[in-house]
Write a structure and sequence with these properties.
With 219 residues, the chain is of the alpha/beta class. The protein has nine helices and seven strands, in the order H-H-H-H-E-H-E-H-E-H-E-H-E-H-E-E.
Length: 219
């Protein structure tokens, strides 16, 4: 697996979309599930790339190329698994807070929800609170996923959580991102607000979480 991760990292940095896709889909054909592929394979590779950028081993352009290549792979993966999905009526809306540009982890979560039958909408990076609130009020999702990765965004994330909890539809708020994974911060988990540090934690959610009396189960 280590050799595969190193190879994927090389392919992402070189912008080789087709070969990066092939190595990811090969894992699927070998029997690995989406949780494993996202958490233990793609996320590890992108974390390596992030560390390389922080240590000035690669340029901003290199990091951006890897990100767009990874985005392509995830989109192609999403299209392939749609053929296997049994749809239900639950809806999830996913967004990054304003000025948050790191969206790949959020996209993985959105794909996992879609794989489990949810209707999903991905607003993506840098979603202003006003527009996010409007989208929630218009579409009325059962769940809103919020992502942020920087500690100085904690106060802004708190504003999103507080405002979205007060929307008329009152969706469940799912909060994730690198900050949730690596730091303790003053945001309180409630019955309406849940924090996800690792993708694997969603397995329990899909098995046991009830939203408005509807049981969420694996297919």
């Amino acid at each position: 697996m280590i050799e595969s991760i190193e190879r994927l990292t090389e392919l992402l940095l070189s912008g080789n979309q087709d070969e990066a896709w092939n190595i990811v889909w090969e894992k699927r054909q070998q029997g690995f599930d989406t949780f494993y592929i996202f958490q233990q394979f793609i996320s590890v590779s992108m974390a390596q790339i992030g560390m390389m950028w922080e240590e000035d081993e690669i340029s901003v352009a290199d990091e951006h190329l890897a990100t767009t290549t990874c985005d392509y792979v995830l989109s192609r993966y999403q299209l392939c698994i749609r053929q296997e999905v049994i749809k239900n009526e639950k809806k999830g809306l996913f967004l990054c807070i304003e000025n948050e540009q790191h969206f790949l982890g959020l996209k993985m979560i959105s794909i996992l929800f879609e794989e489990h039958g949810w209707q999903t909408k991905l607003l993506g990076a840098d979603s202003p609170l006003l527009h996010a609130t409007h989208a929630v009020e218009q579409w009325k999702p059962d769940l809103v996923g919020i992502s942020f990765s920087l500690t100085h965004h904690i106060e802004k994330a708190s504003e999103y959580i507080e405002r979205l909890q007060k929307t008329k539809h009152q969706p469940l708020i799912l909060v994730g991102g690198r900050v949730v994974s690596n730091y303790k911060f003053p945001l309180v988990q409630t019955n309406q607000v849940r924090f996800i540090a690792q993708l694997e934690e969603l397995k329990e959610f899909f098995h046991y979480q009830s939203i408005r009396g509807i049981k969420v189960v694996d297919y």
